[in-house]
Amino acid sequence: MERGRVGEAYIIAGPPHTLIDAFDVAERITGIPAPWFHASPGFLRAIAALSRSERLRDLAGVTYLGNNQKARRELGFDPRPLDDGLRETLQHEIRLLGIHSAASRARCVRNSSNKRCAFPAQFSGGDDIPHNEGQSTLFFGPWYRKSPFFEATQRAGAKAYDIYNHMYLPGLYTDPFEEYWHLINHVTLWDVSVERQVEISGKDGAKFAELITPRDLTKCKVGQGKYVVITDENGGIINDPVLIRLEKNRFWLSLANSDTLLWAKGLAVNSGMDVDISEPDVSPLQVQGPDSKNVLKDLVGPAILDLGYYYFMNTTIAGIPVVITRTGWTAEVGYEVYLTDGRRGLELWDRIMEAGKKYDLRPIAPSEIRRIEGGILNYGSDMTLENNPYEVGLGWLVDLGKKADFVGKKALAKIKKEGVKRKLVGVEIQGPQIHAWATEFWDVKKNGKKVGHLTALTYSPRLEKNIAYAWVPIRLAKLGTRLTIATSAGERDATVVKKPFVDPKKSIPKS
Fold it and tell me: What is the pTM for the complete model shown?
């Protein structure tokens, strides 16, 4: 190892395993004795997160310490100066110090046959996580709500958060590909309390629920859930929640990212119905992956194995009241555990983690990779109020012939009769991996002219392809249509393909 000098950039490939080691490494890099070395809080959190990473623990300490010239020659990219990295956010620090990408590459080289390890190209130069120039720290404060599991996610090493329904949503723990493989092969725990609930109750609860969605709820039994859309008077999509029928006149809407509570309250005011609209004390977790059945069986007993797809049961976990549904955002086998007493969030989290130890349960963030593979849509990016169900492939959720009236019925009937002018399609993008997700609505072109935009993108490790959703004119929506995508890696050829990209019959989550 070479001894560094103040102001010279160095790179670490492979993490120190304790904070003491971190200071020791910092001293060797900078030449500044540890007692006088100032590490930013973000750097300490980065080291702590790395120490908890199963992938990085596989490495035997510091595997490389060298200067910029040596890093360029051996790793193929330029590290940023250490002092720059210390001023960045947690996610930036991990990448800019060179720890994340180089360590990931090292593991793939050492264990290339391990199916849980993504391909070496996926970690080349840290390109798996897109870099946003100018991104900055997200401060935690009372202006956004924290979930009942927030402290547990911090303890588990969440290193990035998104804002969703005015709440903090864990966005990343280790890296997106490692989390993806763990979801596919084992079992994972997600804090998705951001899926806020709207409760519909009262004498006219069922009548109001029919009014708010085009789907025929006479086919939804008590104890059952349905995927639905909520539309406005023009047929625009307000939300695409999972509806749960708790009682004859009592429902929950488990929301995507929009202020549907306010819409429902406004609609109820002048409806002339005896109905109450409220936000209950309900906060869901997701337990997803092939071993989710075993974890839930150990927690609540074998009856959980008889729970049908999109059905639910009321039960308790160690005396904690919950509603468990056979649903999820993964297109994998999985459950959602709805906590109905927000004071007991940490207790519930710890109970589930303890039960999952023997199945290698670990917390992850919602998997963008798996949801795109599975054809799952994200409200706010793939669809908004400007889009109708027929354009996004959700026309099957519109029952124009149902007896009850609903908001947007005339508009949706007209749209269906006239046909749509654009469509959200699946595309495969040629060439090497671009990113784990897209940061912009990249242009879609035909013959050099813009014809639409991308809404979502990822790299599927098992398909070994860049896959995405794109808005295009209906004339270009036919399977096999050739397009060009203006990506951050340059223009790429693309082809319109069927979605879902994986398991189109949804046999995996129903199994």
Answer: 0.76
